[in-house]
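Recap for those who missed Tuesday's class. We walked through two folding examples back to back. For each one, the amino acid string is listed first and its predicted structure tokens come directly after. Nothing is annotated here on purpose, so try labeling regions yourself before you check the end of the notes.
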Amino acid sequence: MRVSRKLWTAATVCVAVVAGVTGCSQGDDKPADPFAGLTADAIAEKSVEATKKATSFRMNGTGKTDGKDMNVAFALSDKGVCTGTMSGAGAGKAEIRRVDGATYMKGDDAFWRASSGAEGDEADAMTALLKGRWMKMPSEGDDNDLGAFCDLKTVVKDMDKDDKQRKGLTRGADADVDGAPAVTLTKKGTKGGTTTFYVAKDAAKPYILRVVETGGDEPGTVTLGDYDKPVTVTAPPADQVVDMAQLAGAS
């Protein structure tokens, strides 16, 4: 079972925030620009270092992966915990928790059938076994992407993998994201798509607020928030858990 991380790659590669310099007021009521004197690329470079220091954040996203609609909502912490949901067109819905070094997943029948790749009697048996229960997977050594997908440290580390994506950005007009002033950084891709980053216009807390992909193969929107707020996750009750490692050993 594999979980696509493409939507999160789009959200975290080249996050554009900066704890930059503050411009000088000219004696009017217009707030000073915290990004004054910085090129768009310089803002992007500083943003990666700033975001890597976040202790937690929430990520909500909608978009397409491999041509199919996908929705995700996660809260992640650098303490190694995560909680959230994911759903897709024709792929059902699943809840995910990561705590105490293990990842737990609880899906509906459609999710287990779509993600397992099983068919016929095998699919029926699997959905019956997991119906209303949580599958437990070791977070270390997974043969799927879920452990890393639900790990803040891995997500922010991935920002450094595609540093070329932080080149050739253009700063656009300021915008508003859920009531917060933001600057925009835009880049056109090689396949006709455009990525726009909305950055909190705040020198003290220069966090990414939203990433929008238009055109291209995987359009979508990811909104980030609740930075540095505690993320509390509890493991599911033991009598509601099916241990995948034990099942594999038994088979």
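Example two. Treat it independently of the first, because the proteins are unrelated.
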Amino acid sequence: MKTAVLSEHSRQFEQLRFAYPVVSRRSRGLSLGLNVNPDKVCNFDCPYCQVDRTVPPRDTRVDFDIMLAEIDGLMALAASGAIWLHPKFANTPDHLQRLNDVAFAGDGEPTTYARLGDAIREVHKLRLKHKLPEVKIIVLTNALLLNKPDVQKALSELKAGPYEVWAKLDAGTQPYFEVISGRKLSLQRVVDNIAECGRNLELTIQTLFPTIDGADPGDAEVLALADRINEIRAKGGRLRLVQVYTTARRPAQDRIGMIKDGRLDELAALIAGKVDVPVEVYYGRHWETSD
């Protein structure tokens, strides 16, 4: 399998402005992304982020109707199988030639988008239109706004069909959280928000461990993160999975690197040994190579 299939996650496809298809490690197939933050504004500044905020955005706001038309078209291509004829996906292995989800992700924090609930509702209608009732709607979030009533209302639209919420938790201690989020924000707030949301919706924890200046987070930090996961569960948060992964896309910062497979297994094992939640590992990809 060519590495490029899994490492090429461009948020631009053909002439589309807000929708984009990628073959995703964590989705184990095709994920149709919706970039609801084309202005690149985010309330985190993660050093491993692939978004280069020194480059002006192409769009500064979402055109709702155009976004829906774009995702409608991509879902039609995926439903018919025609998308696998596109040169970008020509080398996709057979077992990955399946549509798994429509994911609200993009160049910022999706829960800051004022029409998130409307968009989820419309994507659900398209899911039925294209006879894809099994396709999930996924929302990726850094969890900072999960305590907001309007965000909770928007996410409640997910219950209309199969869904997942992937909540970011990359740290177990406050000092490392400030490094990995790029902000002086409260880790406790994020943990409490995940627990609160998890009492209403089942969540997946997404944990990205990079190297920073050649060093990974270390065993103590990872064990502290496991304690945070247990805290979330003790507060009633329902967790279906913990995703442990490392970089697969070229970060905007050169000081960020990829943890090798064996070491990533070791870190994941530390978490698995302390939490009663399934843990899955997704290995990194060298973005410098194309095959």
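Answers for example two:
The mean pLDDT is 92.
The CA atoms of residues 219 and 266 lie 9 Å apart.
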